[in-house]
Specification:
single chain; 342 residues; alpha+beta; Alpha-Beta Plaits; five-stranded antiparallel β-sheet; 15 helices
Length: 342
């Protein structure tokens, strides 16, 4: 039977507390590779150990490997994670854009910093548990002050609590410790957007897509947010490009970005209409209208007003009916447009 090879992507790093744990990990790694895996690993030269930073670094690596090599590589990552105190490594096996296998390897074990971080991360996703999450994440940072993920997660908790300056500090600290933390760039971009610092947000969102891959939801979250920021900066061509990428991506209904498709179709169509590309705009709007809920809401007054304007510009039937729907939903502009038709 032919041994099939698949495109596989690996990326991330693991951080170790001190020289002693780093050396122990390195000795055990060399032993296991020599006695268990030999040449049956996906990564050979690309991944490397950084003694100065006490870390194991896997730059984004794309290789063709068979399933055995992929599983061996994931297994060695999991083994190294037993010695680590922070960081993560992602592994994906894909075929024609479909994910066949995916793993996110993180530190495990009974280390206080590890357990405190995992507890804090879980609590940070629960509404009303912000204070408990903060306590756990503070404990993780006290035990290991280079814990990039703990700072990033605490940044989101601070943002939910309205502690904007503290959140900015946490996200920036996380980025200094781990320049590949796409979640920290997204968090800081949210803060910039709130202050209408759209150019600064764009810079962070660019880094978020640079440090993630298109197989991750965060890549598409950053793409959508960047399109909005480009539009705010009147960089319309760039906004159109990002919106096109986003709305043409096929998201399953359980994907975190699925709920944003309709709103993105609206904003994309609006920009196209303003550029006079009405035929394309109408197709995009119809694409968004056929989506099943739940979706981020766009008011009926805005949706049908735009639909009517696009159809009117095209000389297509149905624009008066759309204006009537928009007017019924409270659009003063639609009411004014209807009066001109009469």
């Amino acid at each position: 039977m032919q041994d099939l090879f698949h495109k596989s992507i690996f990326q991330g790093y693991l951080q170790f507390r001190n020289a002693k744990s780093y050396q122990k990990m390195l000795d055990m790694y060399n032993y296991r590779v020599e006695n268990f895996y030999k040449n049956e690993l996906a990564l050979k030269e690309s991944a490397h150990f950084d003694e100065e930073k006490l870390s194991y670094v896997v730059p984004r690596t794309v290789v063709q490997v068979n399933k055995k090599a992929w599983k061996n590589t994931v297994a060695i990552f999991e083994y190294l994670a037993e010695f680590a105190i922070s960081g993560s490594i992602g592994a994906w096996m894909v075929e024609d854009g479909l994910i066949l296998e995916a793993e996110m390897i993180e530190p495990v074990g009974d280390k206080v910093a590890v357990q405190a971080y995992l507890r804090g991360r879980e609590l940070s996703d629960q509404e009303g548990s912000e204070q408990e999450a903060m306590q756990a994440l503070n404990e993780a940072i006290e035990k290991f002050d280079k814990h990039a993920q703990a700072y990033e997660r605490r940044g989101y908790v601070n943002m939910r609590l309205g502690n904007w300056e503290d959140a900015h500090y946490d996200f920036s600290k996380s980025i200094r410790l781990d320049e590949g933390n796409s979640y920290a760039y997204i968090g800081r971009a949210h803060l910039h957007i709130q202050k209408k610092q759209f150019k600064e947000a764009i810079a962070d969102l660019r880094m978020a897509t640079t440090t993630s891959i298109a197989l991750q939801p965060i890549y598409w979250t950053a793409t959508r947010m960047r399109a909005q920021c480009y539009a705010q900066c009147n960089m319309i061509d760039k906004a159109l490009f990002d919106y096109k990428l986003f709305v043409n991506r096929s998201f399953p209904s359980d994907h975190p970005n699925y709920k944003w498709i309709r709103a993105s179709c609206y904003h994309y169509a609006k920009l196209l209409h303003e550029r006079g590309k009405n035929a394309e705009a109408l197709k995009i709007l119809q694409q968004g209208e056929n989506l099943e809920p739940p979706q981020q809401p766009i008011s009926d007054s805005d949706w049908y007003l735009l639909s009517g304007q696009i159809k009117q510009a095209l000389g297509a039937a149905g624009y008066a009916s759309d204006f009537e729907k928009a007017a019924a939903a409270g659009s003063d502009q639609a009411i004014a447009l209807l009066s001109t038709l009469k």
